[in-house]
Specification:
9 strands; 2 domains; alpha+beta; YojJ-like (1; two-stranded antiparallel ribbon; single chain
Amino acid sequence: MELFRIGLLPVTWRDLVDLVLLGALLYAVLRWLYRLNLLGVALLLLSMTIFLKLASLVELVALAFFLRQVMALLAIFLGIALGPELRRFLLNFRLFPGVALFRKTVLSQQEAEKLAQELVEALQLLSKNGLGALIALEGNTDLTPFAQSGDALQMPLEARMLLMIFEKKSPLHDGAVIVRGDKIIAARCTLPLSERLDLPQSYGQRHRAAIGLSEHTDALVLVVSEETGLISFARHGEIKRLPLVELKKLLVQFYLA
């Protein structure tokens, strides 16, 4: 059904829906690229596509050839830059978001508060004793592949256990500890380092590993800096610091979610 005309071109409801959906998709993509600091490259690529079309129409062969080569290089650069983000999306993709293949251990409110208290006590002791630590709490994404990179354990999640593992003389202190529910299932694990270029120079391997794992999974990763004693947590690709009281609340929520 024709709604109106633009010159001789008829416009229907289908055309309007098509334009709205295309506009929404372009807006979402541009916002995503803006968040990744890649909007400028994407707009440059789009502009060059338009210039290439114009150059082809007026038969500027040399200019069209040059633009094709530059666009190919820009497309490769954009693909490399988007690689980690696309990998995170594919790893976290769920056809049915409410149904997960791997679920966190179901805990009661009391159990969650006890585990959160043990973790907070461990973080305080580690910080006070100048010990660096990296603790990954498994969410709905299975961390078995990362656990297999270290030494398998089956230890209760207690402050004294974590302090023992991260003691400098311990053979397990290097790398990350992985926690599943109320159990420490592995130590001395290797986690993927974040490839982001906008991270502060002060972030060492622990912080980059914490961010890296949180980029690829829904894990909550706790970090204690060996140099400063500062306690941070990483989730969804971002790293933050909270007062310990607030961090404990966050841990309880994480276990109950």
